[in-house]
Design a protein that fits this description.
The chain is of the alpha/beta class. About 40% of the residues lie in helices and about 15% in strands. The chain folds into three domains: about 160 residues, Rossmann fold, CATH 3.40.50; about 100 residues, no CATH class; about 60 residues, no CATH class. The strands form four sheets. It has a five-stranded parallel beta sheet with strand order 3-2-1-4-5, with helices on both faces. A three-stranded antiparallel beta sheet has the order 6-7-8, covered by helices on one side. A three-stranded antiparallel beta sheet has the order 9-10-11. The protein is globular, with a radius of gyration of 20 Å.
Length: about 375
């Protein structure tokens, strides 16, 4: 693949070449009506070439002025990523690459996937943060005015990034999966839907309506909060696999609005490092909460934070605490950081978690956990 990169020739840079990145760039190609120049970055050259080829083909067939190029780089190589950012001067970076694919939620058969199923996706939070941390630090080192959207488990990871001094605009998916799915059921598209939801609530919508339980998302339609969310959207059901068809696409209109400096209303997880997901508003390239009238920001944040406080990973200052069932399961596996860790030690904790994952992936899933 021949690279023809010039200084300041990139509007948007997308890190990663997996299914999530593909959904983003393919939807950008089909729907962007402004001349947006996107650079896709990854270490798999064949896959990278295909994404560039397919994205430009889609832009052509849908009459979009957007154009795509590729740069073969290893995101773990901080020096190379910093140099690339300094050269291309993007205004927005979207980070999708992760050493822990989200597909683990649909896997079965080994002790690691069983641990994730029993303890929750927060067991992967440190692994999910590693490459996003490197990208964030590279943006700082390059000295570019580039906002960061972290797509890797943003409900929890964004708080860790902010604690490390990395500014994060938001994530994609999770709350936006539910808000857009709810919107899609409405007969009148002019109605306004606002949703407060944490990623832990997605699992209920992967079950049949008769088996759903737990605290439901909070949903307002035209300012009125629904008294029974499960009943109102009983016919809606998510796939058991990662809902990339919605989650990967959910940030596309936000990315387009950011690059065009347009106002935008929607939903996003981890805005400005907050826990969970919220209705948000983009204005002047700043993202703020766009809550229903009468709902205070402190109440909304506390509501979202309660899920990880019960069982998960909570970030307070620079300290991350494992709680509830997650803490108990990690302690049972002898994980040295089961009680928590300082986010300044993320790299060391990540190495220890990789060792635990490798050990458990080599073991069959227990019959009962």
């Amino acid at each position: 693949m021949t690279e023809r990169l010039q200084s300041q020739d990139t509007d948007l840079i997308v890190f990663g070449t997996g299914q999530f990145a593909a959904r983003i760039v393919f939807d950008l190609a089909a729907t962007t009506r402004e001349p947006v120049r996107t650079l896709i970055v990854g270490r798999n050259g064949d896959r990278l070439d295909w994404l560039v080829t397919a994205a430009n083909a889609r832009a052509s067939m849908f009459g979009s002025p957007s154009r795509f190029a590729g740069a073969k780089r290893d995101v773990t190589d901080s020096t190379e990523v910093t140099r690339l950012l300094a050269q291309c001067q993007p205004r927005l970076a979207v980070q999708t690459a992760s050493s822990q694919p989200s597909a683990v939620i649909g896997e079965q058969g080994n002790a690691w996937s069983a641990l994730v199923a029993a303890g929750g996706l927060s067991v992967t939070a440190v692994a999910q943060s590693m490459l996003s941390l490197k990208v964030g630090e590279a943006i700082q080192a390059a000295g570019v005015a580039c906002a960061l959207i972290n797509c890797c488990f943003p409900d929890v990871v964004n708080a860790m990034l902010e604690a490390r001094g990395i500014e994060v605009l938001c994530g994609t998916g999770n709350v936006a999966i539910l808000s857009n799915a709810f919107n899609g059921t409405l007969a009148d598209p002019r109605q306004t839907v606002r949703v407060l939801a944490h990623y832990q609530q997605l699992s209920a919508w992967r079950q049949p309506a008769t088996e759903r339980g737990g605290v439901p998302p909070r949903v307002w339609i035209d300012g009125e909060e629904l008294p029974d969310v499960y009943a109102r959207f009983a016919a809606l059901k998510l796939t058991r696999e990662p809902a990339i068809e919605i989650s990967g696409a959910s940030g596309v209109t936000l990315m387009q609005a950011y690059l065009a400096d347009r106002e935008w209303h929607g939903h996003a997880p981890g805005p400005n490092g907050l826990p969970g997901g919220y209705p948000v508003r983009l204005s002047g390239r700043r993202l703020s909460l766009d809550l229903p009238e009468g709902l205070r920001a402190a109440e909304a944040i506390a509501w979202n934070a309660a899920f990880e406080q019960k069982s998960g990973l909570v970030v307070e200052g620079t300290r991350a605490h494992c709680t509830g069932r997650l803490q108990a399961l990690l302690a049972a596996e002898g994980f040295a950081h089961a009680d928590g860790f300082d986010v300044m030690d993320l790299e060391r904790v990540g190495a220890d978690l990789d060792a635990l994952r490798a050990r458990l992936e080599a073991q069959p899933a227990p019959s009962v956990r």
